[in-house]
Amino acid sequence: MKQIKKISFWFLVMFLLILICMPGIWIFVSAFRPNPEILAKPANWIPDRWTIHQFTQMFSINGYVSVPAFKYLMNSVIISSVSTVIAITIGMMGGYAFARFNFKGKNKIFLGLMLARAVPGISLSLPLFILFAKIGIINTSFGVILVYVAMNVPFTIWLTDGFFRQIPKEMSEVARTDGCTRLQAFWNVELPLAGPGIGAAAIFAFLLSWNEYALASIITRTVHSKTLPIGMMDYLDEFTINWAGMCAIAVVMIVPAVILTFIVQKHLVSGLTFGGVKG
Amino acid sequence: MANVELKNLTKKYGDVIAVQNMDLFIPHNEFLVLVGPSGCGKSTTLRMIAGLEEITGGEIFIDDQLVNEKDPKDRNVSMVFQNYALYPHMTVEENLGFSLKIAKVDKKEIEERVKEAVQILGLQELQKRKPSQLSGGQRQRVAMGRAIVRRPDAFLFDEPLSNLDAKLRTQMRTEIKKLHQKLQTTIVYVTHDQVEAMTLADRIIIMKDGYIEQIGSPIDVFNNPVNVFVATFIGSPPMNILTANIIKKDAKLFFELDENILMPCPESKFDYLSKKENVIIGIRPEDITPTISSNSSENIWNFEKNIDLVEPLGTETQIFIKLNNKEIISRMYNQREIKIGQKIEFSINLNKIHIFDKDTEKVIK
Amino acid sequence: MNRKFFSSPALLLLPSILAIGFVIIIPLLFSFYTSFTSYKLTRPDSLYNFVGLRNYERLIDNVKFWAAFGRTILFLAVVLNLELLFGLGIALLINKITWGQRTLRTIMMFPMMFSPILVGFQWKYIFNDNIGLLNNFLYLFGYESAIPWLIDKYLAMGSIMIAEIWANTSIFAILLLAGLLGIPRDPIEAARVDGCNSWQVFKNITLPFLMPFIFIALTIRSLDVGRAYDIVHIMTGGGPAMRTELLWTMIARIGYKDANMGFANAMSYVSIILSIAFTYYFFTKLVAARRELGQQ
Q1: Which of B161, B176, C15, C191 is buried most deeply by CB count within 10 Å?
Q2: pTM of the entire structure?
Q3: ipTM computed for the complex
Q4: Distance in angstroms (rounded) separating the CA atoms of residues A174 and B149
């Protein structure tokens, strides 16, 4: 009886693992095989012939490039990095304010900021499109960065508020009696202590910008500002989909995301849950 | 090298008063202890001196300079916190030198001053360690070292010993006292432990609900408490307090301590007491003792009472009796055999009883 | 300057509020205004053609809108509940594993890193009736007739839900696992000694402790429900014959394809209120659950 329980337990775990990993593995494998093989019936898991054709196509600098993936990648990297740095900087200031000060309407402002984040991208995209077109920042990296900063700030505040609260406020006080200004105390003591958590918040913000579609699909119009998720649509023709190419660009999108998440996953969870443990 | 002065200092949190109109002058090199129950405003006062708490009203002077508007960093005071607040990401050395590094002091001088502090506190072996690798007592020392290194005008201690176990606390207490003698600086020390207050202080301030109840030397506040609160707060076990009716008999006044137990009133207070129906009597446990034949003198008054409980502690024995339904502790320093329920004679030194007004709870002089 | 700046919460919050004000509040006010006009992208002057509540009246009369609204509610209710349930199951499962738990936890976060658009394409491929992995797999077992996963109206909705659940269950699992790991052992052991069986321990000790974590997960999750647009947009585009049309895809269609901004913005407002209502509800629940545990 115990044996059966144990076996079914591990069977369940394995089943889950397959369910979670299978699509990713399929994408990865398919990115390295010729297009016709993807459509083989029955499915062919291990490619007969490995090829990096899709990647050379995507990133080729000479000759005809069907999808300018390199440009998209650069756009994505620049937009995501810059918006993350800005969002973290100003979000961290906000988180610090919530963690260290008491002020009127604190809880209401906090909730208000969170609710601002809850506005669905597609509902926002219509007015943003018109507004950005009016002031002339449509189809610019600047416009997209601005949007991502605003989208990431509330959640960064949520996370950093938690991290700063975990640091006893005496740390800052003792630094200030030790001759620091509040800014010096923050820079020398609180920031290093909250460092890993802020790193996690940064990666969260980066991933959101990296993966965002609904807003970018409206605000970006050309190669000039399109990001990878938008670029992916280039593989979509009127009637057909270039699955192999799409898998290849998907790999380009996933790999950095996976690496970054694995680096900070421990801190990410502690940052997200802190509010539940201590409030 | 400075004195600290508070003038009419007030702190309010909304409508709640934390500190009310506090006036205080702390001369240079004094060891001043603020003591009181939690929520009495003692920590708030300290934090206002440090500049960590905004002032609602009044003025603070350090070294005769008004510091109300100054940042903590510009007040040249050092604070030692209850939980030590060591920087967890720095070694002991870096913790000690941090304030000097911020002040951009010459590297060589930082080294020297850190070394000096390390020697004073006996931290030689621990310089390269991180706070997490230190014991409670060691952390406490580093926290003090961090304050020493800065050579501040005044040290501020916020319950620095309350996280230590009893044995270590006694040891660190003596160290702090020695440190004060060595450094010759002003210290303001906050504690809720009256033993710490008594042993360390040059002067004690007893606070309650944001007010100063009494200021004086340890012996002074012990011998001459101005009200019931101070009388019961200072001293361990605390002073016995009971309400007694005043009874007139043969043109004399007596306190009715219990049924048929009448203690004579001191003649000096006849005028005052004849107008009162009852008063609060305070007697320290050491002033109410089982009668020894040798202690009969003019000011000694004796009575008999049954014993409720006996607790021998070695050097002394604590005897519990009831007067006017209040539990009274008596301290006996000889090792006489006493049984529960036994009726014995007690002596009270009439010169040492404290009389307080029933309504105001203030001492009757 | 530095001192004052770093000592004032108002100034610290100012950049955040400015950014949100510019990107979220102003556009929302603008769209609120346009929802009272007959604004069409193709005719800019129609921006000033004030029509009062007509767009909202049209909404109320619009059967398709109410169908999409109902579908959205149903979609969210099913998806959030199943995600919570599966997330809890996975968390309990992984909590039992003593060996390799960290690796498993990391693998579990895998779907969180996928762009919703990628999730859409991936499941569009899997559910493809002709070349899809699923039909391909069933073919091995002799199911030779292709099942039209994304074409049949019921199957299409189910398929979208599966994609959504695949993408978002892990956030529940991760947060609930963190909650499980944080539960003190004493109350559980005390309950065992008091004669509780496993189910009673779970119901009376584990679940109350998990409540704040459940609401954190729901709050975080509800911030992102609008991202389901990406998945639906890619997988079915609201089809077949609008059978999987959710509020968000309907907004996109009416706003961009039909260029009827005023009407689309009126619908946007309904979807915004819906999202905010979900978030607000879970957030207040979170606060209440914390209070229950005495963890202010």
Answers
A1: B161
A2: 0.81
A3: 0.85
A4: 14
